[in-house]
Give the backbone structure.
Amino acid sequence: MIMPTIDNSWWRHFRTVGGVSIIHVDLSPEKECEGEALAWLDEQEQVRRQRFVHAGPRRRFSLCRAALRAVLCEALNCKNEQLSFQTSRYGKPFALVQDMPASASFNVGHSGNHGLVAYAPTGRLGVDIEERDAQRDLSLLIDTVLGPEERTALALTQGLARTRLFFKLWILKEAVLKALGEGFALDATCIRIPAAMLGGKKSGMLRLPRLPAVTWRIEDLGNQEFAAAVAYELDTASAKKDEHPDA
Amino acid sequence: MASTEERIRQLVADNLEVDGKPLSSSLDLGVSLTEAGVSSMDVVAFTKVVAQEFNIEFSREQCPTINNLQELIEFLDSQAA
């Protein structure tokens, strides 16, 4: 099966952050490409697709998974038929080529009309995206997700600025959680977003109490249409360089 | 008194939607909310609503072991026993 090129498909290169390539997937309803995407999915993915109750999530899954397949086939130099996926204990997928685990790190997120695929050859990474909903009741989420400094920063905002800050913090933490691959088994309030990022800076580094030796770089990818972020593990040399840029 | 399943189905109907449409009352309880298309933000908020309704707290260890609504109902019944 011949994969379409980047220029005539429903995904486009979005950003490169560090060594991570990020691809935007257009999930808008007017894109009539679900049938094409569906043909790329293997039997296991088609079964999973059928489990979605509503047409919208089925469509988003098909388009994002097909885009992921195209990205990985190119990166791993393999054919679509040779590529399959399995999931870790907590549901994070990993790739296999001809039934052998592949050296590839990737993650996918989608919300509404937008999807993101993040890929790097090595290192754990997570990406997430969420269309902002100004009507959402945040009261159920704030205590579950935000730490004390973050709650204080949020309390200083109101209206649209409050919505934007909450979604930014949520999405940064989700990206870290997805990089770890443990979902909300980890207390999200323990992920402390750097103070400079509470004030508007776009990127920063953090460490988690349970994994103090690992440095994570987080980057706010949000724009007017959506909140989005990527988190990726830095190797030791990169972490030192980022901590001491003038060294 | 309503059963745990009836209460959970009501909470789903009152609180969860996908693409602006409420989840069907005939939702398969064996399907995870994520597979039903519910966003992670809605899943977390729903967990809080369930905790309030049943006056319990979910530990971090318990969260990954509950994969769908059927397992949630079984967990809630085991807590009440």
Summary: Residues 55-76 of chain A form the longest helix (22 residues).
